[in-house]
Amino acid sequence: xxxxxxxxxxxxxxxxxxxxxxxxxxxxxxxxxxxxxxxxxxxxxxxxxxxxxxxxxxxxxxxxxxxxxxxxxxxxxxxxxxxxxxxxxxxxxxxxxxxxxxxxxxxxxxxxxxxxxxxxxxxxxxxxxxxxxxxxxxxxxxxxxxxxxxxxxxxxxxxxxxxxxxxxxxxxxxxxxxxxxxxxxxxxxxxxxxxxxxxxxxxxxxxxxxxxx
Length: 213
Ligand SMILES: N[C@@H](CCC(=O)N[C@@H](CS)C(=O)NCC(=O)O)C(=O)O
What we know:
Number of helices: 8
CATH topology of the largest domain: Glutathione S-transferase Yfyf (Class Pi), Chain A, domain 2
Low-confidence stretches: none
Structural class: mainly alpha
Number of domains: 2
CATH class of the largest domain: Mainly Alpha
Shape: globular
Helix content: 40-55%
Mean pLDDT: 94
CATH architecture of the largest domain: Up-down Bundle
Distance between the termini: 27 Å
Bound molecules: glutathione
């Protein structure tokens, strides 16, 4: 399989980390949504990442849909999203908040990367910032009271992977510039996950925002 997209995207990274946890080898095309836009569009009509090209040439887009495929491919015993009930509901809830937070972070970055200074609209950026921090506060609350090693059960789930990838991305791209230690429970929880070989295998170096061309 070929995974398209840079690992400093939390959406790409959660797919890559998941493939490592599920022992699914892949080739990586480290293409940028900025300068490699036309290349990505050959595989994904939206020109977005992650995009996963399967061995038979079929192409999957949208990280949630890709993760769904990977879980199905891994089988019910190894799947990373809990199968049913409250654990599944909560996992999806945490993943939805984390993805929403990531999207709000990406929008703030794109405001600078893709929009000329005179066309930027600070109230819109501030709205994204408020939404991002509200989501992070919610995740901080859940992480603080979580009694097990993982958010939902005695084993790792997709909620843990998604949360760690999103938080790392935000730290690299946005939060480090703000006051540190805003989210101590998230700091501790995510640092613990980053030590796993599956996370280390998908390392991100210094974050650099995309450029428009
Ligand atoms: N909902 C999408 C979000 C993916 C996403 O936002 N990808 C960004 C990179 S972090 C992207 O492709 N940006 C280029 C664009 O949207 O034009 C997913 O989960 O796959």
